[in-house]
Specification:
single chain; about 375 residues; alpha/beta; Rossmann fold; 3 domains; 4-stranded parallel beta sheet; globular; binds 1,3-dihydroxyacetonephosphate; binds iron/sulfur cluster
Length: about 375
């Protein structure tokens, strides 16, 4: 790690070849389950439906996981959503077991909010390049170097990093929370996604310093090729997740979280859309908007050094067989150090209280004053 212009820089994807873990994308892809046959799929779904009832369990799935895991979650009384609503749903649901299909930080957030519940994941190696690229020791040093700043971290981080934060945000609420902090005169230390942080700074004008992390999926979207695709589809609206590079965001008709992208597709006056986010989103976009066409934004072209498929390898590690296995055996429990939980919970609770107040039209100023460095 080095410091340039007051910003610490780290490599964000650290291969874990020694331990055989899934920290490199190569290892993650090697653990992606093979597609079951239709007979296997039907049998696995039956098993899962039965086991969910027997275990008093509910499914909590992200929009990027396999369509089977999205559909089954909804069919069985669970949820498919963005990371913010996954956290809220898991906290509020009465089930004693939460089965989180997504990535590790989502399971950890569920456990931090409900330590008394059992939280299971189909594969505990499902991580995130943002989490991998923000080790707590280096992050702590970054915070120590900026004691005058309020620490705002993205949900895609470890429990230990959350424990160093004043605020947690997801892409659904980051703009609102940073704007409210700025209105209170607070200066921000932001981590780990540099693209989302940059977008928020451009939108709010807040005084921010950034960790140098990126999402390996969204970082691959290419502005030059996107502009060319727009020319081929002049009536198409462009929907972009703010983890994408600034030149891609600049071409967007709507920028937002996974749920904001879904809302824009529903509400915008267009029948054709180009979508710059993980292609797991296509399932919901297409099933909720049958008359509309969704095209994946380009991730490779003349300017690319590699081909990316716009799909998160760690999200792809979630499958029906893994889900049935953990429900049957109780394996793959998400554990968070009990000593870390109370401190990690504080920024999450603040985010959930802030977003609930915003949704109910209540004032949020009092919720942000007196917290952080100002
Ligand atoms: P959302 O918070 O929009 O669900 O995004 C989570 C994520 O990991 C995006 O890559
Ligand atoms: Fe992390 Fe990107 Fe995967 Fe989301 S899509 S979990 S940000 S690597």
């Amino acid at each position: 790690m080095s410091e340039m212009s007051g910003v610490f820089r780290v490599d964000y994807d650290q291969p874990d070849t020694q331990t055989g873990g899934a920290c490199s994308t190569q290892h993650a892809w090697a653990k992606v389950p093979v597609e079951p046959s239709s007979a296997e799929r039907a049998a696995l779904k039956d098993d899962i439906r039965r086991l969910l009832k027997e275990r008093d369990a509910v499914m909590v799935s992200h929009y990027y996981v396999h369509p089977d895991l999205q559909d089954l979650a909804e069919e069985t009384g669970g949820i498919v959503s963005d990371s913010l609503e996954m956290a809220r749903f898991g906290r509020d649901h009465a089930a004693q077991t939460l089965v989180v299909s997504g990535v590790r930080f989502m399971g950890e957030t569920a456990k931090i909010l409900s330590p008394e519940k059992t939280v299971l994941m189909p594969d505990l190696d499902a991580t995130c390049s943002l989490d991998l690229g923000c080790p707590v020791d280096e992050f702590g040093a970054f915070c120590d170097a900026h004691p005058d700043r309020t620490v705002v971290v993205y949900a895609n981080t470890s429990a230990a990093v959350k424990a160093r934060a004043d605020w947690l945000v997801t892409s659904s609420c980051a703009l609102d929370i940073v704007r409210a902090l700025k209105d209170q005169g607070q200066k921000i230390l932001w981590a780990p996604d540099k693209h989302l942080g940059g977008y928020i700074q451009r939108e709010t004008g807040a005084d921010m310093v950034f960790w140098n992390g990126a999402c390996i999926v969204h970082d691959e979207f290419k502005a030059f090729e996107l502009a060319a695709l727009k020319q081929q589809h002049p009536k198409a609206k462009v929907l972009v997740h703010p983890e994408s590079p600034a030149d891609v965001v600049a071409l967007a008709d709507a920028v937002g979280s996974t749920s904001a992208i879904l809302k824009a597709a529903r509400d915008m006056d267009a029948t054709e859309f180009i979508v710059a986010t993980d292609n797991g989103m296509m399932h919901k976009l297409r099933s909720l908007n049958p008359g509309k066409t969704f095209i994946e934004a380009p991730t490779a072209g003349n300017s690319a050094t590699c081909k990316s498929c716009a799909h998160c390898p760690w999200m792809a590690m979630n499958g029906l067989a893994g889900l049935a296995h953990v429900l049957a055996t109780g394996a793959n429990r998400v554990e968070v150090d009990p000593a870390v939980i109370p401190r990690a919970r504080r920024p999450i609770d603040r985010m959930l209280a802030f977003t609930a107040a915003l949704k109910n039209g209540q004032p949020v100023g009092a919720l942000v004053s007196g917290i952080g460095a100002a």
